[in-house]
Backbone:
């Protein structure tokens, strides 16, 4: 069974540039999550989707971050413009069942470095 | 803020049992205890979860005290591949995962 796929695995950009991350969840998983993980810390939830609806985006910095999940499958997370403090690993996860009641499967993450 | 307290690091000899403690003294009656681990350069991986009873699966055992204020994750025969950061999380099943800083387990030969 294919796991959660993320691309790119690594991205280096200069500050003020835009960047986008892509996630393909496990087939059939209706719930999709984006997390950010700073060095030495645990992951922090940015946004959760139930199918194509964002049901929890309270931790998403909406001035520069945006996300979409068209057709309730793949998802894209965008930062525009990027700041130095955005350097982190961005993780995507997916799960079955409503309201995230089941275990989450994580992708390998995208490591973003902002110079 | 995370609702759990874990030691920042632990060592374990290969082949021995690794016992990872977690304190969750403010746990509510409807909150489960979840364990995830994160191997270097990978995303977190679900291990096990429980409510009141002890649980066992192919990866580990979870022992929850009777008052539910603490628990222990047991890896019965640790291998080098078990070297990872282990996160203990308490949550209502419909709530989001809130990760702390976890326990860094180093398994040595």
Residues:
């Amino acid at each position: 069974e294919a796991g959660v796929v993320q691309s790119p695995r690594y991205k280096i950009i200069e500050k003020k540039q835009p960047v986008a991350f892509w996630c393909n969840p496990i087939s059939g998983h209706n719930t999709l999550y984006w997390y950010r993980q700073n060095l030495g810390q645990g992951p922090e939830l940015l946004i959760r989707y139930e199918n194509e609806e964002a049901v929890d985006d309270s931790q998403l910095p909406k001035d520069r971050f945006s996300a979409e999940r068209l057709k309730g499958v793949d998802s894209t997370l965008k930062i525009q413009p990027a700041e130095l403090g955005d350097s982190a690993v961005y993780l995507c996860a997916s799960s079955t069942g409503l309201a995230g009641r089941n275990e989450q499967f994580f992708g390998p993450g995208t490591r973003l470095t902002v110079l | 803020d995370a609702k759990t307290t874990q030691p920042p690091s632990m060592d374990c000899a290969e082949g021995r049992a690794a016992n990872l403690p977690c304190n969750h003294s403010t746990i509510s009656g409807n909150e489960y205890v979840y364990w995830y681990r994160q191997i270097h350069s990978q995303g977190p991986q679900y291990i096990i979860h429980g409510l009141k009873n002890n649980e066992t699966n192919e990866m580990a055992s979870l022992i929850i005290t009777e008052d539910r204020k603490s628990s222990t994750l047991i890896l019965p025969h640790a291998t080098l591949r078990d070297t990872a950061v282990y996160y203990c999380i308490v949550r209502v099943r419909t709530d989001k995962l809130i990760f702390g800083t976890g326990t860094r387990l180093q398994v040595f030969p």
